[in-house]
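Here is one chain, start to finish.
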Amino acid sequence: MIELLNAADDSGARLRAHLPAEADTEAIGAALAATLRPGLRIWLQGNLGMGKTTLTRGLLRALGHEGKVKSPTYTLIEPYVVSRLDLYHFDFYRFNSPEEYLDAGLDEYFAGQGVCVVEWPDKAAPYLPPPDLEIRLETHDSGRFVEIDGNTDAGRTCVIELGKALRGADPAS
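Its structure:
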């Protein structure tokens, strides 16, 4: 069960939680799905195996995607037309230099109304536009910690709505 460590900071821009099991990582992605708006840019940060794709899978399942969800490590992008949104899942892990982002011609995705979810965004810096939401996953003895920061008004709104939804699902809050 997701354990909120703080529902949001004073500005509503940060949420921290403990995710004891893989299912909790998927569940927080599912809860996040309800807060998404067209044009959001979401950065997923964390080492290999931290649950970035698992979180994305939960998000996509909650939006109605029933097919397979895999990390686009080799394809760079997996597009999904789900529910009310176009969602683009990127993985830049294999980039050897940030210029590969420019060479791939991916700018158009970030300029439109699709939701862009990016694994390994640092590999495309400084060319990637800044995120609305930044999600960091790290290991802990008993699962993972997630920290979600809203960096724009749209991102902060998502964090506030997510915190409210999770508090409603958490009988301890």
